[in-house]
Write a structure and sequence with these properties.
The protein is an alpha+beta fold. It has one domain. The chain contains two helices and five strands. The strands form two sheets. A three-stranded antiparallel sheet has the order 1-5-4, with helices on one face. Strands 2-3 form a two-stranded antiparallel sheet. The chain is globular. The mean pLDDT is 89.
């Protein structure tokens, strides 16, 4: 929320947030955030954040018109550029300020 708030203060009209879809236990529109480190040694992924939670945060920050979409994007797992990139499921939330 802190990072979104910082960016929202710099944006006049439209803000775009993209992240990995980490699980599909609930609909992507769900307002869910939960702590979920993958393993004790993997500290780069502490939260599962559903796009619905991002949309709710954006609404609170003055972007009431939100749209959620899904797409895939190639990613090098572990940021190992020598390995082949794989398609990862992603979401994008676009928020627009009230006019």
């Amino acid at each position: 929320m802190g990072a979104l708030s910082e960016e929202a203060g710099r944006v006049r009209d439209t803000i775009v947030v993209t992240d990995l879809i980490q699980d599909r236990e609930a609909p992507l529109t769900s307002n869910i955030m939960r702590i979920s480190p993958l393993t004790r040694d993997e500290i780069s992924n502490w939260w599962t954040i559903y796009p619905g939670a991002v949309a709710k945060m954006l609404e609170r920050l003055g972007f009431p018109d939100t749209t959620i979409t899904e797409h895939t994007q190639k990613h090098h797992l572990g940021h190992k550029l020598e390995d082949e990139a794989v398609e990862m499921e992603m979401f994008t939330v676009v928020g627009r300020r009230a006019r």
